[in-house]
UniProtKB/TrEMBL annotation, chains A, B:
Coiled coil spans: none
Record bears the keyword 4Fe-4S: no
Entry keyword Metal-binding: yes
Name this polypeptide is given: Sulfatase-like hydrolase/transferase
Gene3D superfamilies: 3.30.1120.10, Alkaline Phosphatase, subunit A
Signal peptide: 1-25
Family: Belongs to the sulfatase family.
Span of domain Sulfatase N-terminal: 68-413
Source species taxonomy: Bacteria, Pseudomonadati, Pseudomonadota, Gammaproteobacteria, Vibrionales
Superkingdom: Bacteria
Keywords: Calcium, Hydrolase, Metal-binding, Signal
Amino acid sequence: MRKKVVARSLVGTMATLMAVSTVYAEEIVHDAQYNILERQHGEKWQAEDIEIDAKLAEIRDNNGGKRPNIVYILVDDLSYGQMGNRKMNHVMGVKTENINQFATEGLALERMYTEPSCTPTRAAMMTGRHPIRSGSSEVKVTLVGEGLSKEEVTIAEVLSEAGYNTSHVGKWHQGDIEESYPHNQGFDYAAFPAHQQVQLSLMTKEAAFANNLFGFEPSIQSNDFVIDDTFRPNGMVTGLEARKGEKAKEVAMPAGHVWSQADYHAMNVRYQAQAIEQLQELSKSEDPFYLQYWPLYPLNFVHDQTPNESLNGGFMAEKLQLLDTWFGEFLQEMDNLGITDNTIVVLMADNGLMYHYGGPSGLSELIYRGGKTDFLEGGIRTDAYVRWPAAIEANSSAGDIIHVSDLFTTLATIGQATDHIPRDRVIDGINQTPLLLNGEFHGRRDYVYVYQGFRLAAVVKDEFKMHMPAPGMPGAAAPVFNVYRDPREENAHIGMALWSGASFQDMIKRHQLTIEKYPHLPLGKGAPYSGIENLRPETEKLVADFMSWH
Amino acid sequence: MRKKVVARSLVGTMATLMAVSTVYAEEIVHDAQYNILERQHGEKWQAEDIEIDAKLAEIRDNNGGKRPNIVYILVDDLSYGQMGNRKMNHVMGVKTENINQFATEGLALERMYTEPSCTPTRAAMMTGRHPIRSGSSEVKVTLVGEGLSKEEVTIAEVLSEAGYNTSHVGKWHQGDIEESYPHNQGFDYAAFPAHQQVQLSLMTKEAAFANNLFGFEPSIQSNDFVIDDTFRPNGMVTGLEARKGEKAKEVAMPAGHVWSQADYHAMNVRYQAQAIEQLQELSKSEDPFYLQYWPLYPLNFVHDQTPNESLNGGFMAEKLQLLDTWFGEFLQEMDNLGITDNTIVVLMADNGLMYHYGGPSGLSELIYRGGKTDFLEGGIRTDAYVRWPAAIEANSSAGDIIHVSDLFTTLATIGQATDHIPRDRVIDGINQTPLLLNGEFHGRRDYVYVYQGFRLAAVVKDEFKMHMPAPGMPGAAAPVFNVYRDPREENAHIGMALWSGASFQDMIKRHQLTIEKYPHLPLGKGAPYSGIENLRPETEKLVADFMSWH
């Protein structure tokens, strides 16, 4: 409600604008770029918000006053087009029939932008903030003694404070220190690996003998020159489980056991079972729930010794098809529990495919160029589908720009939890509830600042995308692409885009000024594996090695 | 029926095989590669054919004994993914809602191969033969005094002899001599341009001032060095109309008139009106009809001076969106006439997009690499949808390989016209009626010989595609791609494909032996514009220039 007061002020005179700054203290703080939009559309949006609030109230009334449950399923490393579309299924020789069906049951968000890698995308969604603001821009693979800061406020905390029950199952990848674990970041229950798939599927004997891994596995080459055993980290923590307020425990990993692809598969099977278990548990309560299921699949680095099912047969393609059947089971369980109608289900991927394993993985560049780690559309555009039968029109789609951080603000709005969003920092996430409920052309974002790690690499506005110019090149001559006409960003029309150079430069200045006013916050720091009560001896040794230079 | 006798024989002993050759005289002659398949599946296919024949008879019984009408709509230069899919619509910023809807009303043929350019694809469909066999491999742009030979037997002739009424409206591009015109190749009625869009949309003042054309238009540069006026052909014939047995007449082109983009648009509008007119006329008869509507759009080379409608705004993208509305009107007229249920409608493109106009046309490479003129999948894979409510399952799709020449044999089979297919030459088209009626995995082709003009450029088998090796490179080391895993054909895995080298070489030998046994036939030759009764003076001059060196 408070926002609307500001919106009205913003369209007033300059004098009013000056006065607004005091009101901002109670407002969610957005990037200056968003305020530019609000200045232009504030009155219309205010009217629409009133209508939306009434709709949401009506839906709650129809559900005995209960707010909707929310399920957020985030799969790992799939580029736009790789799930939810029959035509693309035929291209890839993979069937995702359950996802294809799901994609027609709600709103397909066809221009969803993410960050280019796992940790940043997940941090953006969790905090509603570009990962640069929370220090979460980098992907960490082994021990780092770092993680999402306790100062950050996650969507789980926001919804939890507003009365939601919260669970997290699957990949987390937000750090290896106690404060960063999901059960310390707003989740009542969490089952998650301490790291990610490089450890779980790539650092194995199977991957080495399949020629997908250099030299980590000692039995695949002579190691006569090896003097430093710590360069290859052995003994890392695998799967953890915990409840809020408890210490975490490593599970299914006896001391001395050597991790293998079979363990990775078993972990995936376990998370699928636990996700369904959580669904069953959470749906028993009178209170609504927020369940995150972040599967590790389809990211995978080696064939199992089982017959493949897809026409493609690649080691990631296979897991994509398997994941589709699991997704079908999950949705079926929602039907069985009778919670489908008033549960929002968001399904998307965290970033583009890990194309570095192109051929044998079975998945390659499809429509957009690039993949994970790239600022090209292939790195930061993913399929995204939202179903909420009580409120969202079936078989609809929208080409409006949306960024993964918008889910934070949007879900908080729908969950009547926006009072718990902090006002002392920039929230990049925009409330896109109107897009969800009113459909295409009701989005409130027409831009994205695209970071590649700590570097601002590109800026998106409407159908235009500017790649940051090389050092020394004037901004007016930066390469600009039209993503409708040149989806693969192959032909920059510098001359044709000269008119937009100044506007892009203004956008960057606004963004930088916002950062100056609200400086970035630091990543959390601590001892790796703090807050885990059953470290194995091999893990203790690894931690000791790490701490010896800290 | 005769084929079944052979099929049974083929699975018999060598002695039986030797005896079969005499039966072949009555059989449709296929490439040896197909006979290899028939040897393996003859008995099963024979049983399926009996079942299919019964189905077809039943459908005819349900329609008062009438065979289905056939509408074949072939649009110009669109790559796979560019029509009929909502997700791809969002990528391109173009809406093809009518085509998307149509794509769900029947069978989507998701692995349709064409030839890489207009003339060869259209010749392949017309004759059921690879264009190399009829001399139709080359695309001709201006006067050539050549065209589809009267010795070739087209699908229109085959169906016409079996009692179908036949009409052709739109692009033809099979030559500029009398025998090659559609009304002399089996069509009762024809309205068609003598050439194609290079003349009709590119060789204009508008294209020159839009920077899409070099130097043809005299007013855009000084021509002080020009000595030879014939290098720029002026006075070419534009739109023609005729009925079987009549001379052709040029229409809507007064002597002295200078052709412009407005004329091109008017021609497109006229063909749309004439296609609907033909639909109305043809549906009055007791006999079934075969109607070809081959729009010139979306191929286009310049913006009209009218506001664009699509988010994309490119000069081809715009016409794609326009074409979609026209297609909707055409289908609506079918509904109005009550002929939808028992009419087969095939909608597809003739080859990949003309990506040479990438940016400003609005259409660029999408999924597959390459476009028109290329042997890459981007040149020879197109969207293809078949609707026949009486017989084909709605909302189905098939990843089976099919080649555009298969339509010849398939439509002849459904039209009970196979007796009129000549037995003295190779027919590459395979009867794919089982695929249409029984769906995915019932296709009878697992290979395609890919020609680029007169050159065998690639061979497709299952998910594999071999690019012909460079001269001097052994066949075993030819680059082989897996099109599911590497749809853009970017990473040849020569080492991994070594096993297939010999098999691909066998395929090429079989194909060459078939050619030796049944040599290619020559293209028709004659005077350009023969059989046109109202040549303009400027055209007479052009013909005189041409004949002066013939």
